[in-house]
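Notebook p. 47: complex prediction with 2'-deoxycytidine-5'-monophosphate.
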Amino acid sequence: MEKINIAIDGPAGAGKSTIARLVANELDFVYVDTGAMYRAVTWSVLKADLRPDQEAEVVQVATRLDIRLVPGKDGQQVYVDGQEVTAAIRSAEVTGNVSRISQIPEVRRILTDKQKLLAADKGVVMDGRDIGSSVLPDAELKIFLTASVRIRAERRFKEIQDDRPEVTLEQLEQEIASRDRMDEQRETSPLVQAPDAVLLDTTEMSIAEVVERILELCRAKVGGK
Ligand code: DC
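Predicted complex, structure tokens below:
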């Protein structure tokens, strides 16, 4: 297929990364998980014993960080300054702090610049919160994926049962609702559906159905040119 850029945005747990990775595989495009980039900065900040409110120091960390996203057979691997952090950036500590790090405008600017560069040659499926609205406003296809808070909590519950057996479904629902609020209410690039994005509510759709729908939309875009 002709190379285009595909932006996939939506709230936490809507299935963005799974769907984006599968769509990228089908099309032989590059998958870019921008949430992993915010997590990588957060992980480095915590490792340096800094707090999210030490903005100047956090920005310094984000500026000098070398973040690499490498496709692997079990999904995307994340490296920070050469160290593999794929699992470490999913820890509860990183998850609990990442919204605050991603509210810092200068951090967003630094990561947005990196993301634009990654997509410059087209053929990218990029997922996040502000891709269609701010990072790639010219993306040929924009998808806004959503699902009810309950179903998103249930999906995450299944995913993390081995790593965090103490967590209840109700706790996850609260965590997801509170992360949604922070992502929607921040001043810089809040989570918002771009006016030209296609809304897909996946509450009652299987992963395969969502992937097929996006591939159909791609074919329509490319064929329609
Ligand atoms: O998709 P995720 O849960 O890995 O994202 C982690 C956090 O990063 C989430 O709180 C929102 C933030 N984020 C963002 O602000 N902008 C993006 N483009 C991607 C993620």
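Notes: Residues 12, 34-35, 38-39, 98-99, 102, 128-130, 179, 183 surround 2'-deoxycytidine-5'-monophosphate (CB under 6 Å). The chain has one domain: 6-217.
Next step: compare against the earlier run before touching the bench.
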